[in-house]
Amino acid sequence: MTRSAIAPVVAGKTARRSAQLSPVLEAAAPAMPVENHPDQGLAHGIAEQLQQLIYGGSIQPGERLNEAALALQMGTSRGPIREAIRLLTGIGLVVAVPNRGVFVRQISVREMAEIYELRALLLGFAAQQACDSLGDAQRLEGELLLDQMDRACETGDGQAYYTHNLQFHALLLSLSHNQRAVQAYEDHAKELHLFRRRHFNASTNMRRSNAEHRRIFEAIVAGAPDKARKLAQQHVLQGRQRLLNTLEVPALPISPAAPLPPKPRTPRRLKT
After folding, report:
1. Within the chain, where are the H helices?
2. CATH of the domain at 23
3. How far apart are CA 17 and CA 110, in angstroms?
4. Can you give the residue range of the structural domain that contains 169?
5. What is the C-alpha separation between 241 and 95, in angstroms, rounded?
6. Which of 6, 25, 65, 94 would bridge with 88, disulfide CB 3.0–4.6 Å?
7. CA–centroid distance for 140 within its chain
8. pLDDT one-digit tens code per residue, 84-119
């Protein structure tokens, strides 16, 4: 990570940006009044900047975040840096390793594939439940998000698409009226942000993804729970396959077989 990659954060600018914090950080950050925590607005701005540097590859998976170096480069004290890192830990982008420091999270392809399978089940459940709970306000919200994702596809704005995509999935989960399902889905999604954000830089992937969103929503509006569930599950699994296609990774590793026990020796007969 080069020093030029990080611009100093000005408190006034950060305070304004904190009100427009991305939904990812907004959902993960604890609800603490900014006025009771003077550094909170600054920390949110720093967290958002670090988030974009991680998504953009300026800070690589496995790289250690140095509080002192970041404070110097951003022109602030270590307190806001520490709080920003805590926010990133909450959304699964970084992980604290005892006695070593905080590192950008690394997740294996196998872990990623397994998480997608669980997300498919949860989103399918939510889409099925949404058929009975969709109201006029939620219908308008869903249609607006679909249109916004279409516009992001047309302009090639991967960041805007990713934001609206998260909001659309959150809408479906909220319609399940099952807080356990919502929490489980959010926990799994947090671990995939680094993979998924880069995946939405490809316009073809964005268009296919939103076409699937529209079919899911049409099934929900039509009150077809089985169809909605199947389409939602397929959407997540097809998203996993699209992501795998964009990653330059070898095939999933296969655990080596356990070694065979040594062949027992045949006892020798004693001569008489």
Report:
1. 11-18, 23-28, 40-56, 67-74, 78-90, 109-133, 136-155, 158-174, 179-190, 193-199, 203-221, 225-246
2. 1.10.10.10
3. 36
4. 109-245
5. 26
6. 94
7. 25
8. 999 999 877 899 999 999 999 888 888 888 999 999
